[in-house]
Design brief:
Layout: H1 11-14, E1 19-21, H2 37-50, E2 52-57, E3 60-61, H3 70-81, E4 90-92, E5 95-97, H4 100-108, E6 118-122, H5 132-141, E7 145-149, H6 162-169, E8 173-177, H7 187-198, E9 204-206, H8 212-217, H9 227-236
Parallel strand pairs: 1-2, 2-4, 3-5, 5-6, 6-7, 7-8, 8-9
The structure holds fe (ii) ion.
Amino acid sequence: MLSFFKKKPSLFELLPSGFVDIHSHVLPGLDDGSKNTTQSVELIQGMEKLGFSELIATPHTMTGVWENTSEDIKYSWTSLQEAQGLNIPLSYASEYLLDNAFLERMQEGDLLCLKDRMVLVELSYFQAPINLFEILFELQLKGYIPVLAHPERYAYYFSDFKVFQQLKKAGCMFQLNLMSVVGHYGPESLKISEALLNANLIDYVGSDIHHKGHLDCFQRKVQVKNIEALKQTMAANAFFSEKA
Ligand SMILES: [Fe+2]
């Protein structure tokens, strides 16, 4: 009865113990995230303070913008291992834009995975590839499982909610950005986040932290009403724990 008066929790307060983040840009010098080792250490320490227990860093791989190879990413990760002051386990994968170079990598089997054969992919914010469903099909033929980053951020799907159901049916998993539920990406993303949670379409969550300003978002109040569904998806990230 008193739920109406209940105080909204801050985002960081909802993180379960042992929380594993599967999406961030904390590796130095690869993309629009951390620029150098000092920034990486600051970010990772900030995340640890907020309650993150393990991280899988996922720098962008995007033709013409951030043309990272698997070796580049591994090199950046290795260099960070030598830094002082890091206390939580950190592994690496990538957030791949579904472009032509991605298709080549897929054919060569050269994709860095979150775990097993699960690969984090993103779409352009302007339009999805015309052959998106074919790509998803091909990926799975190659034995990969696509995990779509932040489905709630693709504005061209906002008026077409059924496409989310179709993507799930096509074998795509969904990773919600945590900052979406505090309204960081605007009211429309927040609304779609709530709808995706209510429809039980979200599999996992990720921070998508790029810089220190993003850490502050975790102090903000959670705006979605379905806190239970959000907590469940946060708990589901335990699947990615190195200890699992
Ligand atoms: Fe990202």
